[in-house]
Specification:
- The complex is a heterodimer of chains A (385) and B (138).
- Chain A is α/β, with parallel strands linked by helices.
- Chain A has one domain: Thiolase/Chalcone synthase (Peroxisomal Thiolase, Chain A, domain 1), CATH 3.40.47.10.
- Chain A contains 13 helices and eleven strands.
- The relative contact order of chain A is 0.20.
- Chain B has 138 residues and is mainly β.
- Chain B has two domains: 45 residues, no CATH class; 80 residues, OB fold (Dihydrolipoamide Acetyltransferase, E2P), CATH 2.40.50.
- Helix content of chain B is 6%, strand content 38%.
- Chain B has a five-stranded mixed beta barrel with strand order 4-5-6-8-7. Chain B has a three-stranded antiparallel sheet with strand order 2-1-3.
- The chains are: A alpha/beta (385), B mainly beta (138).
- At the A-B interface, helix 4, helix 5 and strand 5 of A face strand 4, strand 5 and strand 6 of B.
Chain lengths: 385, 138
């Protein structure tokens, strides 16, 4: 059966909360702040929200958030699969809206991981019986960083990818951040700077790694019919796909191939589009290697050609492949689940709200989230009709 | 004094595996029905759901699938070891394990090198498997 797609579903509101280091606010407050701003952006009232998609506020994230903002949703989803979750939520929300189970979906996220100093190189402590505790933690793998480093080592060995090529991604992303007034890191950056930064887990340097910040984000999704009366140009959901493939890195069959190799083709098929149709791409950049693997898996280049693809600042402002145009997790913000920020920026680009970083004539955008240790993937192709 | 290294906490599905590691005789499960060899141990075959696995002792020969040299420790417990190498090793039996690569400098490690299994009696009652370069490989 050919997937029908969700062209009758539209993103109508997007917003960040305060970002960076926000010591005076709680995580749930940041999620609520972003939600209020996204609803205002859409021109919708809180009382109209009847679908809720969030996680991270205790074991019952959506239930907790629902209480906090006095939401009593008809449809509720506290799924969590790491950083890709908000992208997958677009699929979940679109399906629920299309099925008539809700009409106005709120997707939101908030974290104070920077102020909490919650991010440890060893990862988040888990139940000692889980496979990660038994078969990985005893060996001192920095998590998630070390797993991405293992993928990078493998890609370099098989395909000859170099640290310079990975650094190209960090440098291009910084150039986009320089055009974003709210990006955390806006100063000039060179490939030499990246290579001179300390190696944390070889071959990844500190500047191959994303920031650790506080922040939140929110999306408001509804029917295209409803969107007609609203404030903003509706951005429709052309294609979506999600998957997860493993939880711990020893269970990933090929460290050079991510779940994007499954979600990309499915999302493109749903949209009736291909990689050549994408005007702007927002691809989760937890680490530079994440971007390189994802570009290959989504079909923007063939497997193994990612290093050559990003060379010569191709993905920087003025290059022919606009990528991570708000400055990415590498330079703009990274409160732990960056997927939601890929969507916020894609919507802004498609609306033409990019300011000095606006990609000319952007009508189709791709967002991709990656979670865990290359564990989960979500792809969304969005468009301005 | 350095913090204690995190050690595995065996459960009902992994007790036999860790018992065998403790006896310096690492073994992996093979499905009694479809023959798929699996790591880590679990009650049901993740391919065919059969719940009658056999234990297959491993030869100890493996290939370095990938590695990372950790210059910053995952936690204080590993601080006195830096730099240390965490590796993914493909065993000849067809499973991949994460473990430390020891007796190998960062410069010697290379993807594809042959490695052999050894054991680290990390604490009383807690043995871990490690790998070292096959003689002459590094």
């Amino acid at each position: 059966m050919k997937p029908a797609g969700f062209r009758d579903v539209a993103l109508v509101g997007v917003a960040e909360s305060d970002l960076g280091r926000v010591p005076g606010k709680t995580a749930i407050q940041l999620a609520a702040e972003a939600s209020a701003r996204a609803l205002a952006d859409a021109g919708l009232r809180k009382s109209g929200v009847d679908g809720l998609f969030t996680f991270g506020f205790g074991r019952m994230g959506a239930v907790q958030f629902g209480e906090y903002l006095r939401l009593r949703p008809r449809y509720s989803d506290s799924s969590f699969m790491g950083g890709s979750t908000p992208v997958a939520f677009i699929a979940h929300a679109a399906a629920a809206i299309s099925a008539g189970l809700c009409q106005v979906a709120l997707v939101c996220y908030g974290s104070t991981q920077a102020s909490d100093a919650a991010r440890k190189l060893g990862g988040t402590p888990e139940d000692p019986r889980l496979p990660s505790s038994q078969y990985e933690r005893p060996f001192g793998l920095p998590t998630p960083l070390g797993a991405y480093a293992l993928a990078a080592t493998r890609h370099m060995a098989v395909y000859g990818t170099t640290s310079d090529q990975l650094a190209e991604i960090a440098v291009a992303t910084r150039s986009w951040a320089a055009l974003n007034p709210i990006a955390m890191m806006r100063g000039p950056l060179t490939i030499a700077d990246v290579l001179a930064s300390p190696v944390i887990a070889s071959p990844l340097h500190r500047l191959d790694c994303c920031l650790v910040t506080d922040g939140g984000g929110a999306l408001v999704i509804t029917t295209r019919e409803r969107a007609r009366d609203l404030a903003r140009v509706p951005i429709v959901v052309l294609g979506v796909a999600e998957t997860h493939t493993h939880q711990i890195i020893s269970q990933m069959p090929d460290l050079t191939v991510t779940g994007a190799a499954a979600t990309g083709p499915r999302a493109f098929a749903m949209a009736g589009l291909g990689p050549g149709d994408i005007d702007v791409a927002e691809i989760y950049d937890s680490f530079t290697i994440t971007v390189l693997l994802t570009l290959e898996d989504l079909g923007f280049c063939t497997k193994g050609e990612g290093g050559a693809f990003v060379a010569k600042q191709r993905t920087a402002p003025g290059g022919d492949f606009p990528l991570n145009t708000q400055g990415g997790g590498l330079s703009y913000c990274h409160p732990g689940v960056f997927g939601i920020f890929t969507v916020i920026e894609a919507v802004r680009q498609l609306r033409g709200e990019g300011g000095t970083r606006q990609v000319a004539d952007a009508s189709v955008a791709l967002c991709h989230g990656t979670g865990g240790v290359l564990s989960s993937s979500g792809t969304a192709i969005l468009g301005r009709l | 004094m350095a913090l204690a290294r995190p050690l595995p906490t065996p459960d009902h599905e992994s007790a036999e595996f860790w018992r065998r590691v403790g006896a310096h005789a690492l073994a992996v499960q093979r499905c009694g029905a479809c023959g798929t060899v699996r790591f880590y141990p679990r009650a049901l075959c993740p391919e065919c759901l059969n719940d009658q696995p056999d234990w297959v002792p491993v030869s100890g020969r493996g290939t370095l699938y990938s590695f990372t040299v950790c210059y910053r420790p995952a936690s204080e417990a590993f601080a006195d070891r830096t730099p240390y190498i965490v590796a993914l090793v493909d065993l000849a039996e067809g499973v991949r394990l994460l473990a430390n690569l020891v007796d190998c400098t960062p410069e010697q490690a290379r993807v594809g090198m042959p490695v052999t299994l050894a054991y680290d009696d990390a604490a009383p009652g807690a043995t871990l498997y490690v790998f070292r370069p096959e003689a002459g490989a590094a």
